[in-house]
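Readers of this paper often ask what the protein records in our data store actually look like. The remainder of this section carries one protein's record, kept here as part of the documentation.

:::
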Amino acid sequence: MASPTDSTDPNALPTPATQAGRDGLNALLSRPREALIALDFDGTLAPIVEDPEQARPHPDAVPALAALAPKVASVAVVTGRPAGVAVRIGGFAGVPGLEHLVVLGHYGAERWDAVTGTVTAPAPHPGVAAARAELPGLLDRVGAWRGTWIEEKGRAVAVHTRRAEDPEAAFEALREPLADLATRHGLVVEPGRMVLELRPPGMDKGVALLEYAREIGAGSVLYAGDDLGDLAAYTAVDKLRAAGTPGLLICSGSEEVTELRERADVVTDGPSGVVRLLRSLAARLP
């Protein structure tokens, strides 16, 4: 875990806990025009809330990204949300400084480019609609945990337990039935922070990050996330490091996902800490 930022210097950066992380930060600072800044949305740029539709970025997140983006090779938001939803909720469209922002939605299955303002995506997997149709009956059979609810995500469907009377018990009770349902329809289950998401296989943030980093020829990569779905992106950064591309792993601090904290080079105090880091980078870069 990184050392705390020097409070006497508003532009001070934390010292990464690992040599690989320090190499990643040094590469970013010395060659910013080659750097890819990639970030998760929920829990990283936006605080976690009970209703995902009510999520909004930290008030300073978009200004920080707009200040940083013109100084690096690219900024990408990598999210499980549909790309268009992330753009709408994030308020990313038409922001000066973010003219070249890319949003990789549905774990990379969808892509929104600020340059065109359009979303590109393949046809949806038929198993998602079939599984969605069975979910109400499945929840009834399991016990219809009060407060558990279904989120429509277009190319995926998620069951949230954060509002349940016992969120963790509901989460554990639903793991196996949802895994069986997913298997029958050719899907996989991605667990998160009190949410279980059913989605097509081959969609993950690691694949999305690797493909985009290679597409732009990134010379270094910073990735910030907060949840289990971000572990694949962490692994992608490890692969890039092994191939000679420096990387820096940021955890938007969560006590709910200790594995992410243990693998990170820098742990921040949630989205507010991520925003401070982005602002500090923007201030330090030419």
About this structure: DSSP finds nine helices and twelve strands in the chain. Residues 3-7 have pLDDT under 50 and may be disordered. The two ends are 28 Å apart (CA to CA).
